[in-house]
Design a protein that fits this description.
With about 450 residues, the chain is an alpha+beta fold. The protein contains 16 helices and 12 strands. The longest helix has about 30 residues.
């Protein structure tokens, strides 16, 4: 039995200002802040944000334990009534808690089961080929924008059988407004302003959500009047009944669909964008990847069955997600006094886990700043520790779209490489923008060279 009351040790940590705590340093550069925290104070490091006691946990075994105990000793930490939650995510799968979350997760999970996601492979490849056909040889384009438009189209077609190609740029604009305002809530003036204070960023956030909702409502209305619609996730959600035989309210339906749309495309797009950058910076790995794609596909379009054969391609995606884990930090809240790594952590403490910090720790990943897809191709005993790799989180709240995202990224990379060589311009400025996820602040201007030429 765990004797938490006998553990006296309190974690050491960064001194902050009264009330706002370490917010200024966190806001200036959140990744630098958590990296420094781990370096200076170790694997359980204390800090505070706006009066909330916080710890950063960086020992993979302890991180794993926190993730596994979510739902029992921790909750997902999203129930604080934040502006981001109330406006953008609502009570969808990312933010809901307890029995309600359990029920919704059970409802949505089958759409992402291994056997079921295979059916999306052709759609992913077809959408990628549509995109490739619009490109021109020897042109300069923003590959990040291309990846965003592509994954947005794929997620909407795959889950809700809707083609958003015509609304792609308005939807992207609304999405970007939401992401920027999420960043502002984290590290802008909004981080210290009460939720009821309207700011330009919050107004833009609301307008973005309203636009996305109007698109989604239209989709729901069309589906309600279409008796011949196929059985996709949207139909399943609309047909679901609770214990009292009641359907989901329209607001709840919108929250779930909006959440899947938001969580399901920028993450994958940005992962691919970082992969294009890392490949451009590592010509040897790039050449190896191109050779694999040529030999496995031999000129034909990739299929679901090729994913297993595209071993190096998969390692490139894994290593990109290690180097740039787009969901770079996550938070849990202790529901009771807990012990972490021998330290006593009080009930109510925010427990932060940062894939960025763990993935760049030389104890688990030698040469952490090097791009080495080969580290994923070793014998089992030599692979990095399982708990040290967490781009999709872990425990019961592990990313529901994890298998989908891995298959999608592999197929997109292969289907693009068959036709084009993409190289991020060496002079293009690279800076990480933290907007909830981490993405290239200035996009990624790249040279597109067609294969046949
Ligand atoms: C490379 C792409 C992706 C990455 C890196 C990623 C990352 C993550 C992470 C780290 C979490 C857990 C957050 C936490 O523990 O607090 C998560 C949760 C989630 N992801 Fe993803 N994700 C990706 C793609 C997707 C896709 C394609 C979908 C599908 C629509 C999706 C839907 C979700 C949902 C709904 C949750 C919440 C699950 C729950 O709490 O039950 N994600 N994702």
């Amino acid at each position: 039995m765990e004797a938490t009351s006998q553990i006296q040790k309190q974690p050491e940590g960064a001194q902050g200002f009264p009330f706002i705590g370490n917010l200024p340093e966190f806001a200036r550069d959140p990744i630098k802040f958590v990296t420094r925290l781990q370096r200076d104070y170790g694997d359980v490091a204390a800090f505070s944000l706006m009066g909330t006691k916080s710890v950063l946990v960086s020992d993979p075994k302890e991180v794993d334990r926190v993730l596994l105990e979510t739902g029992k000793r921790y909750d997902n930490g999203k129930n604080g009534g934040s502006v981001t939650q109330e406006t953008i995510l609502g009570n969808g799968l990312v933010t809901s808690e307890g029995d309600f979350w359990k029920r919704q997760r059970k409802l949505i999970a089958p759409a992402f089961h291994h056997q079921n996601i295979k059916q999306y492979a052709d759609l992913i490849v077809d959408c990628t080929q549509d995109m490739v056909e619009t490109w021109q040889n020897d042109s300069v384009r923003d590959v990040h924008q291309d990846m965003m438009t592509l994954t947005q189209r794929i997620i909407m077609k795959a889950l809700f059988d809707v083609d958003v190609r015509d609304n792609a740029s308005e939807a992207s604009e609304a999405f970007n407004a939401m992401m920027h305002s999420m960043g502002a809530e984290l590290k802008g003036p909004e981080a210290i302003l009460p939720a009821f204070v309207p700011t330009p960023s919050r107004t833009k956030m609301k307008q973005g959500v309203e636009y996305i909702n109007s698109l989604l409502l239209d989709i729901i209305e069309k589906r309600r009047s279409d008796s011949t619609a196929k059985r996709d996730l949207l139909t399943m959600l609309m047909d679901a009944r609770d214990d009292d035989d009641q359907p989901m309210s329209t607001v709840q339906l919108l929250d779930e669909i909006r959440t899947l749309y938001l969580a399901g495309h920028e993450t994958t797009a940005t992962t691919l964008s970082w992969a294009w950058l890392l490949l451009s910076q590592n010509p040897q790995a790039y050449a190896k990847l191109e050779a694999e794609v040529a030999s496995v596909l031999n000129g034909r379009a990739p299929t679901a069955d090729d994913v297993q054969q595209l071993v190096y391609c998969n390692a490139v995606i894994k290593e990109s997600l290690r180097s740039y884990p787009v969901a770079w930090i996550t938070r849990r809240v202790a529901l009771e006094d807990v012990e972490i790594g021998g330290y006593q952590i009080e009930k109510g403490t925010s427990v932060f886990l940062s894939p960025w910090v763990v993935h760049h720790d030389a104890r688990w990943f030698p040469q952490p700043d090097a791009f080495l897809p080969e580290r994923w191709l070793k014998d089992k005993a030599e692979l990095p520790p399982r708990e040290a790799y967490l781009p999709f989180g872990g425990g019961p709240r592990i990313c529901i779209g994890n298998g989908f995202a891995m298959m999608e990224s592999t197929l997109i990379l292969a289907a693009v490489l068959q036709h084009y060589h993409i190289e991020v311009l060496p002079e293009h400025p690279i800076e990480i923008e933290i907007v909830g996820t981490i993405r290239p602040k200035f996009g990624l201007q790249s040279r597109f060279t067609a294969r046949s030429s």
